[in-house]
Specification:
Layout: E1 3-7, E2 26-29, E3 38-42, E4 48-52, E5 56-61, E6 68-72, E7 112-115, E8 140-143, H1 158-166, H2 170-174, H3 177-181, E9 195-200, E10 203-206, E11 215-225, E12 230-239, E13 246-248, H4 250-263, H5 283-302, H6 310-317, H7 321-332, E14 345-346, H8 354-410, H9 420-442, H10 448-487, H11 493-555
Parallel strand pairs: 7-8, 9-14
Antiparallel strand pairs: 1-2, 1-5, 2-3, 3-4, 5-6, 9-10, 11-12, 12-13
């Protein structure tokens, strides 16, 4: 049943299916039961679509009174990003990899219950859909928490009211960074972990892990349980600093990945390799997944912050079933996630002009957009080249080889003039070109496949940055508005200074992540291009050797 409502804050649509609403605008809601935190309704201009449930209040009239009772509508599920409407959200399809999402059996309890508020992680900020029963392990159930006081419009904090009125950045809200910037995140009595940011020659950067290490992923092995009813692939994971292997399935990687998304708000966590509906135990798919898991792991171990995460250490070292359960529960109860993660950051004392920071962020945004387009273009070209190697090139060389064979056969049909030496040389030339066709079909596994693996990793990393940058943009907006309100006498200058100070923390963190991305990008693309060129040179050298051997057959005629 339709009900009337009033917009509490301005919301500007960003995607198809959304509609913009203005503060104090009268609205019609078609169904007051929100779906994933969104209402479907109509604004005063007759536009129909969805808008955030937390941005409006439903107007309820009391039949026995002239007083209108305005009550705030609940925001619904916390697992929805305002920038990604329900109409277009793509969820990972858990029915694809039954092996990856079956019961944890000996690895965990049958059921784990976690608070939804603890999982209030920006889904867009790392390129994946929100953690909810559709996307998480089927044995994890969510228990919604009532909205806290600071999320209510009845909050008496002027800063919070300013923030709610200005908010247009969904990832900014969902990540908890808004609450952090506005001072709504209470300081913890004891913070056991800290992550430092230093000033480098080019700006802020993460302080390096004092105990760097690497990690190998090897020997994907098909395993069974329940007397062969269940089949899965196990990988041997060996960190360099212990030398002791542990064995992990894809679902264990997926658990770690979700913990990382949940905790590290301003860090671009690379996507895991994709799932597949069929052929999960085919050799080519297993090999491809292993290659991409290795790249994922290399990025993890090279990141100064991610590599020091306690949950990551647990993943790499724990081989005991009971200890795994305890460590898993401890990681899932970690309080220093989302907004609280910002409290763990130690930033430099150097002053940075916020306008300069904003300009630098804008430059990186333009760079990331262009790089993303270029990576997609190279991915398309390389994929097309693989297709040609496997099909067109092989077929053309086989046709050429068959044509030479046909010539050789024709020359044998008049025995007095058959010239066996020439015929044999031409026939061998035909076989050489057939072999070269097979060489072309085999070559992508040595060069193009590895290039596509690296490009896929960077597609995921780049896809995370737009929403991470929104965090900084949202913080900038809060600083500007708080200063305006301070100038107008509507806010204490001390409170405005606190917002500016906390915005500096967000800015330093984003710049440190940008710096790490550039540093790792230079290493990765140098390695990628060198490896590709080396394999191309070796390939064409083998082709030349085949042709030279064939050519020498004609020298003896």
């Amino acid at each position: 049943m339709s009900v009337k409502a009033k917009a509490l804050y301005t919301f500007l649509s960003e995607n198809n299916g959304e509609i913009s609403i203005q503060e104090n605008e009268e609205l019609i809601i078609f169904d007051e039961n929100s779906v994933d935190g969104w209402f479907q309704g109509e604004n005063s201009r007759g536009e129909r679509g969805i808008f955030p449930a937390s941005y409006v209040e439903i107007i309820r009239s009391r039949s026995n009174s002239n007083v209108t009772d305005c009550s705030i509508s609940p925001a619904g599920s916390l697992g929805k990003d305002f920038s990604t409407p329900n109409t277009s959200l793509h969820y990972p399809q858990n029915d694809y990899d039954d092996d990856d999402y079956d019961d944890w059996d000996d690895w965990d309890d049958r059921s784990t219950v976690v608070d939804d508020a603890d999982h209030a992680r920006n889904p867009g900020a790392n390129g994946h859909a929100p953690e909810n029963p559709m996307t998480n392990n089927p044995n994890v159930h969510y228990r919604p928490k009532p909205a806290s006081r600071q999320d209510s419009i009845t909050s008496s904090r002027k800063g919070s009211m300013v923030g709610r009125n200005l908010n247009r950045f969904s990832s900014f809200v969902r990540s908890g960074v808004e609450a952090f910037v506005l001072g709504d995140v209470p300081m913890m009595a004891k913070i056991a972990e800290t992550y430092s940011i230093d000033m480098g020659p080019l700006g802020p950067r993460w302080k390096e892990n004092p105990k760097p290490f690497s990690c190998s992923i090897e020997d994907p092995t098909k395993q069974t349980k329940f007397k062969g009813i269940k089949t899965y692939i196990s990988y041997r994971v060996t960190p360099s600093h212990t030398g002791r292997p542990v064995y992990r399935r894809y679902k264990h990687f997926d658990w770690l990945y979700n913990r990382l998304l949940h905790k590290f708000t301003v860090i671009s966590v690379p996507h895991l390799p994709e799932k597949q509906a069929t052929g999960r135990f085919e050799e080519d798919f297993i090999e491809k997944r292993k290659r991409r898991l290795i790249l994922w792991m290399n990025h993890m171990t090279s990141h100064p912050v991610l590599s020091q995460y306690e949950g990551f250490e647990h993943f790499l070292m724990c081989a005991d079933d009971k200890q795994w359960k305890l460590g898993k529960r401890r990681a899932e109860k970690d309080e220093m996630v989302g907004a609280h993660f910002m409290l763990t950051l130690q930033i430099p004392k150097e002053h940075q002009d916020l306008q300069d920071v904003e300009e630098r962020v804008d430059n990186f945004k333009a760079f990331a957009r262009k790089m993303d387009d270029s990576v997609m273009q190279l991915t398309h070209v390389a994929s097309e080249l693989v297709r040609k190697h496997l099909g067109g090139f092989r077929k053309e060389f086989q046709r050429l080889g068959n044509a030479f064979q046909s010539i050789s056969h024709a020359f044998t049909l008049d025995p007095p003039y058959r010239s066996d030496g020439l015929n044999n040389a031409i026939s061998h030339t035909g076989r050489t070109y057939e072999n070269i066709g097979e060489m072309f079909a085999e070559q992508p596994k040595y060069d193009l496949f590895h290039m596509l693996d690296k490009l896929s990793l960077y597609q995921g990393l780049l896809a995370n940055f737009p929403d991470i940058i929104h965090l900084q943009k949202g913080a900038f907006a809060k600083v500007k508005e708080s200063q305006r309100m301070s100038d107008e006498g509507k806010m204490d200058q001390e409170e405005a200074d606190g917002i500016r100070k906390r915005c500096r923390t967000v800015g330093f963190a984003l710049q440190a992540e940008m710096s790490h991305f550039h540093q790792q990008r230079e290493v990765d693309f140098k390695d990628m291009m060198q490896a590709y060129l080396r394999e191309q040179i070796a390939f064409y050298q083998r082709v030349v050797q085949q042709l030279e051997r064939t050519l020498r057959m004609y020298d003896c005629l």
